[in-house]
Amino acid sequence: MSNLKPVTVSRQSSREERQTALYQIYKQVLERQPYIYERKILAKAEQDFLNDKIGVRRFLKELGHSEIYLNSFYHNSSNMKFLELCFKHFLGRAPLNQAEIKFYCDILMYRGVAQMITTMLDSEEYRKAFGCFTVPYPRKQEFHESPQAYMESELLNHELLGRRGRSIPTIYWHQLGLNCDAGVCRHPEANEQVELSLSQEELAHLLKLLQSPQSSKTAANLSPQQKELLRRAIG
User: Fold this and answer.
1) What would the pLDDT profile of 107-119 be if each residue is shown by its tens digit?
2) Does 164 score more than 90 pLDDT?
3) Does residue 201 form part of some domain?
4) What is the 8-class DSSP label of residue 72?
5) 234: in domain
């Protein structure tokens, strides 16, 4: 999945080593380096990290709860797509299954975005994978739940921001019958001559259906026209 050497800091790390870790944190979580005005907002958290007052995990909480992260990924994405991005940024993989998505989606909807990110960073998986001082990275796991789970993590960890839209997470592209092997999803039998349109209201309704607890069943029961409308809207 990645040949990236994990970046870890400790109490003995120099300021230069912590600066390297900070660069890698932004690369992994923001998928870019902050703009000048954003550095001003993050100035206190950055200095606390560089001065060894807080570790990587604590800094990730500060960054994840900040408007900088939320403006980049939360406010302009569907809840489901945002969850997928959080898995990528903080756990270095794609969601495994619908049960995992539902667990974090319930926290997001009923306890808020900050608590959802905190729960992910406080999880046993995060602790075992990264501890308090290793920067999250695209993990090369020894075992995967399924070939699909492996493929989704491969695609997600290597795609550019917004490459496949900000509405539907990867796990549902498969349920919609799309081929994502090349990194860009296309339906193998799509008829380019079919003219279909999808209003904002129709799109919102279909996305709401996919975000329901029975989303897997819902996706399977979408009509051919509804599936085609979704493909055209997000393909």
Assistant:
1) 999 999 999 999 9
2) no
3) no
4) I
5) no
Distance between CA atoms of residues 26 and 31, nearest Å: 6
Q: What is the pLDDT of residues 23-42, one digit of tens each?
A: 999 999 999 999 999 999 99
SS3 content of the chain, % helix, strand, coil (to 5): 60, 0, 40
Domain that holds residue 30: 15-143
Q: How far apart are CA 129 and CA 126, in angstroms?
A: 5
CB-CB neighbours of 34 under 10 Å: 18
CATH number, domain of 92, equals: 1.10.3130.20
CB-neighbour burial class of residue 117 (10 A; exposed 0-12, middle 13-18, buried 19+): buried
Q: Is 9's pLDDT higher than 90? A: yes
**47 located within any domain:** yes
* Torsions phi, psi for 113 (to 5 deg): -65, -40
Residue pair 51/86 in contact (Cβ under 8 Å)? The answer is no
Domains held by the chain: number: 1
Give which of 208, 197, 207, 209 is closest to 233, Cα–Cα. 197
